[in-house]
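FAQ: What does the model actually see?

It sees only this:
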Amino acid sequence: MVLTTPLLAYLAKLGPVDVVCTPAASALLANHPAVREIIRYDKRGDDRGASGFLRLASSLRSRQYQTAYMAQGSVRSGALAVMAGIADRVGFATSAGRAFYTTRIPPVDNVHHAARLLSLGTRNPLADAPRETLRPRLYPSSAETSAVEGVLGVAARDARLIALAPGSVWATKRWPFYAELARELSALGRVVVVGTDADRSLATAIVAATGDTAIDATGKLSLLASAELIGRSTLLVSNDSAPLHLASAMNTPTIAIFGPTVPEFGFGPLAERARVLGKTDLACRPCDRHGPQRCPLGHWRCMREITPDSVVMLARELLP
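And it is asked to produce this:
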C-alpha cells in the first residue's frame, strides 16, 4: 500500500481517486490528499464470504466507476471489479487476476516496484522514473503525533533519535547484530526500536545492550504512527521489511540491510539519502524472492558477514 501512493498521486491529477482496501491498509491512507474516499473491504470480518463480496460489488456498481487499477493483483479483486460493472480494468499481465483485466501491463524487472505500480496509471511499462516521482508519501496526523510522544516520553521528545527495525516475517532477512549495533549507536543518539509485537524479544535485547537507554516502541504504535516516529528520526537502520518503506515515505535517511534478497527485486529505499548494505560476492545470493525461513546452504553468510562496524561507518556518514 505504501508503494502504491505514487500511483495514487498520479491518478489524482486526472480525477477523483477512491481506494478499495483492507481495514489494516486503509489506516495508512488516512489524511492522504490524493485519496477522495477509502472503501474498506473487511474480507475476513464483516465482509467475509460470498454475501460480503456481493454486497461490496453492488455498492461499487452504484457508484458507476469507469476504471479500476488493479494494484493488488488478486483473483478476488479482479472478480470484484467485474461484478462492480467497471468496464476498464487495468492490471499486470502476470497477476493472478489477469484474466479479469481489459488492459494488461507487462511488469518490468529490475526497477523499483513503485515504478511498476505507477505504470498502471501511465499504461506503459516504466523502465525508469525520477526518484522523487517514485518516493511514496504518508501523512500522519496529530493523533499519530500524540501517540508517538506518549511512547517517547518527555525525556526523549527532543533527543536525536536513531530508529532500528530489526524484525521481518522472513527469518533469513533478520540481520543478527542489532544489539551490538545499538550499543555503538547509543553514543550518537537515542536509539528507538520500531516493529510489531512479534519483534518484542529483539527489542528487549537491543534495550539491554544500550544499558536500558533505548526505547522499545514495538507493538505500541499503528503503522501510520510508526511512520511519524521514523519521520522524527535522523536515521533508520532496517532489514528488507515494511519500516524501510515507511522511511521512504517520510524521507528519513536510511541504511537498508539486504541478505537473501536484493534491491533489484524492486523494494529498495527511496529516501533522498539512503545506503544499501549487502554481500555482493556470494554466488548463492539472492536465493529467494522473499527470504526463506532457513538458509538453503546452512551458512547464512549473506547476513552474518555484514558487521556492525560497517553499519556504524555508514551511520556516521548519514547522521547530521
